């Protein structure tokens, strides 16, 4: 569900804020493992632990983007591994609709990414976070975030 | 056409095919849904594209047919339904709001002019009893849709920010929607939509409506007609409905047996791979 290829430009040292909704049973454990294995990943990610990727309603994503995130990642168990059977099936469908709707409203759908990361995939976790952070650096600041007045 | 509808309604009532006819009644200059049980009243039966028989009663947030059936569970009702009315009934039945077994649909086809006014894609019910099938208005014929698709992301954002800033948060778009039947509505929760804030913060209020309608909107066109600010709400609802069809081969209001992809698994309703990527 990747967006188009984004040119790697440094964008004047811009450090994006990234919100990640991580499923407790797999991706969060994967992130934990990355930590204990001392794998490096960008500090741009702010993790919100959820019980299942199916818990993430599209409103969460939009709210995060509005409240200041430059990008939002939803990470869940691989299909077949969800602890609640089909939570990730729902996430896959919701995010697909969400990305199209965002596009119509003028919000770049590349700012939202859904991936599956298991508890043992620390490497994959770091790779995805790094890739997404680079993508957000290239996209630049999210224009829809609320500017504090 | 209305003559024929009255005649048939009378026949259904006198032959006891149904116990009541549910349709629109005109009194003085007001048109409203009415349950006809006496043939003498049928002279006031009318058709109008500006009024829906399938509306949600506020503040209980329940569909009117649901309420009638709750009151009189054994009553056999004949409903004078156009394409959109029938789609709403199908979608409501799917969501356990009404019982189609006790409903006999008196299907009426709309005219070309009606369809154009409502931007209706399917201006006729499954079985047309009265009227002639007119052509629906397809997505590529809708100017607002065409112009939105021609915009860049920045232009789209600017367009909607401007349009949605006109919103006076009257809840009209939700209130007229036959599919907005949630007891607890997210638009009334401070967490998502701050009370007292005008216009509502971009884009949450309208995002919620658009997203919640993804698998339910039956394209009756009422939301846009109701909006006092003239916001082209249908533009996005229609596009999202098209996407849901593309992604999951699902159309709300088409078939009572077909479950929404949002409640099924990927095995039951797969996500179409080729439609996955979003054009920016
Ligand atoms: S067209 Fe508008 S009012 Fe009608 S079902 Fe869709 S969202 Fe609701
Ligand atoms: S806006 Fe959403 S929560 Fe509110 S009634 Fe409609 S579908 Fe339900
Ligand atoms: S009908 Fe129009 S003005 Fe009223 S709440 Fe809906 S979008 Fe806003
Ligand atoms: S429990 Fe991990 S995605 Fe459902």
Structural class of chain B: alpha/beta
Number of strands of chain B: 7
Oligomer: heterodimer
- CA distance, first residue to last residue of chain A: 36 Å
Rounded to an integer in angstroms, the radius of gyration calculated over CA atoms of chain B is 20 Å
The profile of the biggest β sheet of chain B is:
5 strands, mixed
Task: Assess the beta-strand content of chain A as a share of residues.
Answer: 15-25%
Largest contact between protein chains? A-B, 34 and 44 residues
Number of helices of chain A: 4
Low-pLDDT segments of chain A? 1-8
The helix tally of chain B amounts to: 10
Q: Tally the structural domains of chain B.
A: 2
Reported CATH architecture of chain A: 3-Layer(aba) Sandwich
Order of strands in the sheet with the most strands of chain A? 2-1-3-4
Please tell me the total number of domains of chain A. Answer: 1
Stated plainly, the CATH topology of chain A is called Rossmann fold
> Ions, cofactors, ligands: which are bound?
iron/sulfur cluster, FE2/S2 (inorganic) cluster
Percentage beta strand of chain B: 5-15%
Mean pLDDT of chain A comes to 91
Helix proportion of residues of chain B, in percent? 25-40%
Helix content of chain A: 25-40%
